[in-house]
User: Fold these one by one.
Assistant:
Number 1:
Amino acid sequence: MQLRCLIAMEPPSRFDPDAVRDEKLKVIRAIERPAPRDIVRGRYVSNVPGESYLDQVENANSRTESFIALRLHISNWRWAGVPFYLRTGKRMAARHSEISIVFKTAPHSIFGQTLGQHRNVLAIRLQPNEGINLFVTIKEPGPGGMRLVDVPLDMTFAEALGRGVEDAPAAYERLIMDVIRGNQTLFMRGDEVEQAWAWTDPIIKDWREQDGHPDSYQVGTNGPEGAAALLHGDGRKWRDIDDRQDST
C-alpha cells in the first residue's frame, strides 16, 4: 500500500510529514475497489514432505493465502486508464522487491511493428542491492538492418556512493532513528490506516464468504498460473524474478 501511494501521489507542497501523508491519503481514497477477476490468491506447495504451506501451519483446513496479485486502478485525473499491477508472495523464485514503471509506447513509430515489442522500463530496486535500472531500446550495433534490442542502464547505490553505503542504517534502524528524532514522514497517519482498512476489509470479507481455496504454486516459482493470466489478458506479462540485474 505504501509503495503504491509513494509512486502515485502528487508532489507535496513541502517536505513535511503531514504534507507527504496528505498526498498519500488522497491516493488511498482514489483507489477503486478491485473486482474478483482483478485478484489472484495463491498458496505454495512442495513435492518435499513438510515444505508445503499447509504442512508448515499444521492446519489442513486453512484457507489463508501466501501470495496475492492484483490489478488496480486509481480514479483521478493523472492515473485514469493506467493499470497498477501488484504482486507479493512467500517462497517464490527469489527474495526481490522492486517498483517497475513501464512507459507507454510512442503513438507513432518510424520502425514499423518492431517498436511495439519494446517498452522503456524504469525499475527501482529496493532489495537486494538497492539501485535503479533504466531499460531502454537501442539499435543493435553492426550491419543487417534495423534491429532493436533492450539494454539496461544500471546504477547501484553501493557502486555509486562507495563503501559508505554498507555502513548506512538498515531500514528498521532508520525508522527507529526517525522515532527518536520525531520525524513521522515514513509512518502512516491514523486517517491513512483507517482508509487503507476501509479499502481492504470488503476484499477480505468476500474471501471469507467464498468456498474456494487459493490457487497452488510450486515453491521457487513466480506464483500461480492465474497471476500470469491476469496480465496476459491485458497483453502484458510480469517481469521474471530470476532474470533481474541483481548484482554486478
Note: The CA atoms of residues 33 and 199 lie 7 Å apart.
Number 2:
Amino acid sequence: MSTQASTTPSGTDPFGVSLGQLLDLRAAQRADHPFVSFPDGDITYREFHASALGLAKGLVAAGLRPGGHVGILMPNCVTYLELLFAVHMAGGVAVPINARFRRRELAFVLAHSDVEILVTTDLIDEFTDYTALVGQALPGLAEHIDPAAELRLSDAPRLRRIYLHGTRETPAVRPLSELVAAGRNTTAEQVRQALDARSTEDTAVLLYTSGTTADPKGCELTHGALVRSWSAYADLVDLGPDESMWTPCPFFHVGGIGPTLSALVRGATVLSMGRFDAHVALAHIERRHAEHLFPAFPPLTLGLLRTPDYDPSRLTFVRTVLNVAPGETQQVIADLLPDNAVLLTDFGMTEGAGMITTTPTDAAVADRVHRNGVPLPGIEIRVTDPEQPTESLPVDIPGEIQFRGINAFRRYYKDPAETAATIIDGGWVRTGDLGSLDARGQLLYVGRIKDILKVGGENVTPLEVEAHLTTYPGVHMAQVVGRPSERYGEEPVAFVELASGATCTGPDLITYCRDHLASYKVPREIRFVTEWPMSATKIQKFKLRELLA
C-alpha cells in the first residue's frame, strides 16, 4: 500500500491580502498593541506602521517600482522588520541577505538577485563588519566619489543606491535618514497605488539558500504562501491576539520571518533579539510572558534551557515550544521544560515557506518527540522512490519526501532548469530529504539523501548515529560525516562537542556506539570540537568533510 498524507486544502489564504495590506489592517485594528518587542523595548502596531510607511515613501521616491528588488543586510533589529514591510508597502520584493555570507557569496547574491537598492548597517558584530563586507563584495564602490550620484557597477549592474542604517561615513553610501527625508513629498496615495499593484500570488521575498558546493539558490516565496502557511501555524498553536511568540532566528531566514507573520495575522506580538544571548533572552521572555517559543534549532533551544540562571519555574506561562531535532535530543529538551509547555517539532524548508508538517499540540508525547507530525492544512506530502520520483512508496519505507500545496515556492530566481528539476508533474516539490510515512500519515524525517553514507554496501543514516551519541552523558552535540575509505568506500567520522565541564574520550564514545549499534555504523574516529561551522541556523557538514580531507 502506498501512502500519502494531507489535510483539507483551503485553496485560498484566510485574508486575501498581501503582507503590506495585512500590516495596514492590523495597524488600524491593533494600533496601540505591541507588535515587535526587543530586549530594549517594544513598538506598537501604530508606531511600526508609521515608520514602515515613511520608509516606503522613501523607496517610491528613490524610484522603486512594483516588482523591484530591495536587499537588506543587517542583524535582527526593529529597523530590519520596518524595511521588510516598507518594501512590500512600496510594491517591491524584499531580498533579505544572509548576514553570515562572506565576500564571494554576497557578491554573487547582489549581482544575481538584481537588487536596485541595498540597505545595510554600520554595526560590527562577532561575525561581520557589514560596511567593510559590502566594500569587499563591490570593489567598484571605491571609484564612486559622489554619494548623491546613482551607482554604476559592473559587479552589480542593477544596483543604483546603497543606504546605511547608522552614522559611519562611507563612500558611495547614503544615510538611511536621507531615504526617509526623500519620501516626505511622496503621498500615502502613491504608496497605496504601488501596494495595490501587487497580488497575493506575486513574489514577496527572495530568500537565498546557503550554498554548499554551488552558488546559493534564490527561492521566490509569494505573499499568499507566507500568509497561508504561517496563519496555519498560528491556528495550530492557538496563538491569541494578546499573546506573544519569541523567535531568536534571523530575519533573513523563514524561522525569523515566519513567527513574525504568525503574530501579525493574529494581531499579537513577536519577540526577537539581535545577537542570541541566553541570559538576555530568558529575561525578555519572562518580561513579556511569551506563551509560544520558536527557537527551532538545538543550539538556540538548549542554549536557552541550559543557561545557568534557567529554572522551569521561570517559564510556567509558556504553552508551546518548537524545536527540530532527533528524538533523543527532543526528549532532553522536553525534560528541561516546565510541565505545561508542549514541545513540538516540524519538517520544513525554505522552498515550503518554512513549515510543511508539524506535530499537533494534542498528539501523544511519543509522537511529538519521535515523529515530525502531519501536513499543515492545505498541504500534501508523499514519499517516493528517489530514482523514480513519481512512484510512491509503501508505509514505513524510506524514500524522498515531496510536498505540494498552499506553501510551495514559486520558482528559483533565474534558474528554470533547477526549477523544473525540483517542481515536477502535479506541482510536487522534491525536497532531497529522506523520510517515511506511517499508517496514520505521520512523517518521520531520516536525513538529507546526499548525507546518507554507504559503508561497505550498507546505508548509514548520520542522524541515527548522532542521536545515539547525544545520549552519552556530557555530549552536547554530535555530527557524523563520511570519509573516503579504500576498503569500505566510506567510513563514518563523528565530530563531538562536550557540555561545559564534561570529560570523555574518543574510545569511550566508540565503545558506547559499538555496544548499541551495528558495527558498520560505529564511527571510526571521534574528533572533539568547541565550535561549529555554521550557516545562519545549521551546521555546515560540507565544511566538516573538508576538515577530513
Note: The first strand starts at residue 4 and ends at 6.
Number 3:
Amino acid sequence: MVIEGYWYTNIGSRSENEDSCAYFSPGPDQYCAVICDGLGGHGGGKAASSIGVKALSQWQADEALPSGETILAWMNEANRNILATRANANQMKTTAVALYLYKNQAVWAHIGDSRLYHFHNGVLADYTEDHSLAQLSIKMGELHSRSEIPSFEGRSKLFRVIGDDEIKPQLHAPITLSPGDHAFLLCSDGLWERLLEDEIMLDLHKAATAEEWVYLLRCRAMMRKSTDVDNNTAIAIWIKE
C-alpha cells in the first residue's frame, strides 16, 4: 500500500488567512490531516484555527488509531483553550475537520462546514455534512441538493463550531479500508463553495497524483471569477494498493 499526500493554503482576497492546517506522519503507517477555518476577524479567527489544529495534532508515534473519545477530548481541549484565550469582545471560533489513518484503518471527525470527502475506486463513498443552516434547509426540503448551498443566502450561518459554550463534534465510526484505491479530500469552505461535487470526482479521475488533483481543483475554482475570494485550504491523501 502506497500513501501520498499534498496540501496547500491560500489567503484569497482577504487581508489575513484565518485557515490553519497540518498534514504529517507521526510514525510508521500513521497519517494525520487537520484543517480549521477560523471565525471572528481581528486576529481572533487565525488564533482560534491555530489552537484547533494544535489540539487535533497530538497523535504520537506508535499509538493506535485514536478512539472517538480521544478525538472528542482533543476537540474539547481546543474549546477550553479558545474560551480561555479570547477577549470579551472577540468571539473567536473555528470549524474543524480531522482525519487519522493507521495501516488500513481510518477515523475522522468534524464540526462546522470544513469538509471531508472519501472516494473508493474513484467513486464518492462518504462525506461529512455541514453543521449549517444551509444543510438544515436541505433536510427540511427548502434546498434540493448540496450544489445549491453556495448560493444560499444563509450559507455562512453555522450552529456547531469550536468556541461555543458547549460543542457537539460529529464523529465518524472507525472504518477498515476495503481493497482498492482510496482518496480523501479535506477542505475549507473557501474551496468547496466554488466547486460541484461531481467536479471534484471528475478531477480525481483526471489526476495522476494527489498534488495534480489539488492543482486541478484550484484551477477550476479560480475560473469562477469573484471579487471576494475566501481563504481556501485543502489536504489530499491518496492510498494506492
Note: Residues 68-85 form the longest helix (18 residues).
Number 4:
Amino acid sequence: MIMEIEDLLPPDSRQAIAELLEDRALFRDGGRTAGRMARARKNNLQAADHPLVRGILTKVRDAVMTHPVVQMAAVPNRIARVLLSRYEPGMAYGTHVDNAFMDGVRTDLSFTVFLTGPDSYEGGELVIEGAEGERVIKLPAGAMVLYPSTELHRVRPVTDGVRLAAVGWIESRIRRREERELLFDVGLIGQAIAAGREGAAPEAEALDGARLRVARVHANLLRLWAER
C-alpha cells in the first residue's frame, strides 16, 4: 500500500524549514549514508550533523509519529532514521531497495516528506515500482508519501531548481504487510461508522453497536499481532 498524506507539516513549519535549508553549507555528499549496493547509484547531498538540522529532524520525526493516518497505517514502534536530502540539477538516485536494518532497527515502511513544492524544481519525481507498475510521485511541500520498504524505487534526475526532502524509515509493531493493511481497513470502517452515526439519529443505536464490534476486532487483532 502506497499512501499519500497531505499537510503533514503546517505551512509555517515547512516554510521555516525550507528557509533554514537554503544554506548549502549544511550539506555533505549523500553517498556516505547509502548502503554498499546503493552507494554507486546515489548522487545527492545530505544534511550534516548540526544543531539546526537536529531541530528540523525532531520536527519531522514528531509530525510523522503523531499523525493519525500514520498511526493507523504503520502502527509505528519507532523510526529508524530520518535524513534531509538536497538534489540540485544533475543529481538523482538510481533504482534501489532500502536496507532491511538501519541502526539496528528493522525497516518496514519508508517515507518521504517533501519540503519544497513541485514548482520549485523540474524533474526529481519519486518513482516506486510496485506490483501494479510504476507510481510517479511529486507532492506539495509539507506532504508525505508512505510505502513498504520492500519496494524498488528511485528519484529521477533534477533538471532545474532544488529539491529538498526528508526521508525516513519506520519499524512497525506489525511485521507483516498484509496484517498492517487489514488493521488499517478495519480502522477505516470504524471511522466511517462513527462519521455516519453523527448524521443518522434514528440508526444511532445500531451504528453504535457496529462501531463497538469493529473496535473490538481491531483491538483483538492488535493483541494477536503487535510486538513491543
Note: Residues 109 and 148 are 4 Å apart (CA to CA).
